[in-house]
Design goal:
single chain, about 120 residues, alpha/beta, 6-stranded mixed beta sheet, 3 helices, 6 strands, about 20% strand
Amino acid sequence: MSEPKWQRHEREVQQLLGLDATITSGNKWFDPGDGVTRGRRSPFPLYADCKCTERKSFSLKLDLLNDLQYQAAELGRRLILPVRFHPDVGPQDYIVCSLHDFAELLSLAGVLDVQG
């Protein structure tokens, strides 16, 4: 039996971003998310909640973002939503994050001088 597309997406996000997997894909209250930065110092610790669809659209609701943002902040991490569209032509990956987190990432990368 082949690996489900959503599970492969989670694994690939974890590998690409150096994240640790969570227990049962974040279904436990004490280990939420699909991939997290754990046990090491990072200027930008992540909390990934992966989404995968075989459709050409993906519904994104503010309530979901607010809930996930709260969970990530409670753990001292930054929320990212890796979204994979998996149409017939193969996977296409995107990431959703807050504008302020994106600006901070650009600043950390040295390509943006953020004035506080």
